[in-house]
Amino acid sequence: MTETAAPSKHSTDGFGVSSRIQAALPEMSAAMAKIGALLLENPAAPLELSITELAQQAGTSPATVTRFCRLIGYAGYPPLRVGAAADLGRSSAETWQSDIGRAFDPADSVVEVLNALVSSHTSALQTTAARLDREAAERAAAAIARSDHVDIYGIGGSAVLAAELQARLYRIGLNAHMWSEVHEGLTSAAIQGPGTVAIGISNTGRTGETLEMLSLARSTGALAVAITGNPDSPLASVADYHLTAFAADAYLQPDDLSAKHAQLLAIDLLYLLVAQQDFSRTTAKLAASAAAVAPHRRSLRGSGRTAAKGRTAS
């Protein structure tokens, strides 16, 4: 049967993933039926597997998985994952613990929630500091400081961290660029070469776009650096140097900000080690940039006088 990206003719409003699959089975090609059978047997698969991994287990392609999602009424794989999570949540008495977090309870007070957050963030920073490969950080920083060009890759939440690192490196005189769109990132990665550095940031280390960009950059001759929470991840495996930014994944899954704080610690360390390599250049560039923006910063003393005059006049 010819595969189609068109939505199912059957109404799926209010249906769970399994019900949608059952309703659309007659319309499915053999490849799509394999995906359906896999999901009926293991409803949690979308939460545990990337689209590529799901396709591999079903013996098909990511494009076919996307068409399958549309056939059963979802716009793509991410909405399917949301639907699977909702189904599991409705069927589990442990919804809060499994979907929201284990570090605190919905009945906890503000103080208890705050203490849980402090504990989680502190643990992430301390564990990152203990596990981070210091020699790798030093060697990566030395390569970045003498590089002709630095590409930094990050998707989604990691893009914020990639932009932060790019801005810091650029401010101290390095030719650094940040890419969060895969086509643009691959274009830049393709023209990398010896004497350049590519940095990939991903908490899981499994983000396909980041992995693709970093792999291509390394294949063209760039030194590859990965910052992830998993030293055994695919992104770490393609890097010359890997920095572990560890988070315990204790609350608000999958938006645990302690993971980003661990990443921020790693990139802050990397930035400062780079800054040390040529300290005179660093201080000169920082002074020049500070002077450039100084006219745009209002004096607190002047603002106070203006406010006082305004009150007197009124």
From TrEMBL:
Residues 140-280 form the SIS domain. Transmembrane segments: none annotated. The keyword DNA-binding applies. The keyword DNA-binding applies. Residues 15-91 form the HTH rpiR-type domain. Keywords: DNA-binding, Transcription, Transcription regulation. Gene3D superfamilies: Glucose-6-phosphate isomerase like protein, domain 1 (3.40.50.10490), Winged helix-like DNA-binding domain superfamily/Winged helix DNA-binding domain (1.10.10.10). Coiled coil: none annotated. This is MurR/RpiR family transcriptional regulator. It comes from Gryllotalpicola koreensis.
